[in-house]
Amino acid sequence: MKEKHxxxxxxxxxxxxxxARVAPPMPPRFxxxxxxxxEKSETPATxxxxxxxxxxxxxxxxxxxxxxxxxLLAGVFLGTVAGWQTARQEAQLNYLTAxxxxxxx
Amino acid sequence: xxxxxxxxxxxLALGAGIFGGAYFVAHRxxxxxxxxxxxxxxxxxxxxxxxxxxxxxxxxxxxxxxPQCATICAKIAAKKxxxxxxxxxxxxxxxxxxxxxxxxxxxRTQCQSQxxxxxxxxxxxxxxxxxxxxxxEMKRLTLGEHEQMEQSMSGNxxxxxxx
Lengths: 105, 163
Known about the structure:
Helix content of chain A is 68%, strand content 0%. Chain A contains 4 helices and no strands. Chain A is rod-shaped. With 163 residues, chain B is mainly α. Chain B has a domain at 52-152: Four Helix Bundle (Hemerythrin (Met), subunit A), CATH 1.20.120.
């Protein structure tokens, strides 16, 4: 049987062991970098890119409905104006063809 | 990322479909509603804001002018057929073709003169401001293009003599 050593029993030995323990130097800005990592881990995950943000916006019902309504109204308005122009040009051509057939191209 | 792109492209396609569909339907409806292809004078009525009495007077002038125009058009068409029937160009044929071309030119001048006279009469049947606008517009639409073409050709040929 081996005899068990009690380190507390020998204060000289304890002091010697404590003095022999090596304390490595801290890396530069150790504390701020630790705090930064803690803060980063606490913030919630955000949208990765602008594309994700845009997709999220598009999927909002209010935005989607108002955009669809705006496009519909713009299409109706521009289509009506263009239709008037076409009808006017056709009517003008009808008249010109009747009165000046040799001068209409 | 990929999902976002699909959503964006889908939204763009849907938006284009909504706009395009609305534009097409409104355009067709507008053309069908406003166009009256049976009446030659519809453009005059709407463009120059004519009253019923003014339109009736102009319609009389218009119906009186059309047979004159048709007669000259028929003569021009006959001369053109005659010109085409000459076939390949020889010495005698060239002389005959020249005569026919002169005849066609004379008929066109007569047609143009009648047409301008008709425009003046129609413009006088309108309120003065509208009449002037009508006359200017008709000259631009019928003779303006020929004048432009002549000007561009004379400018491009380089036959101008410096003084």
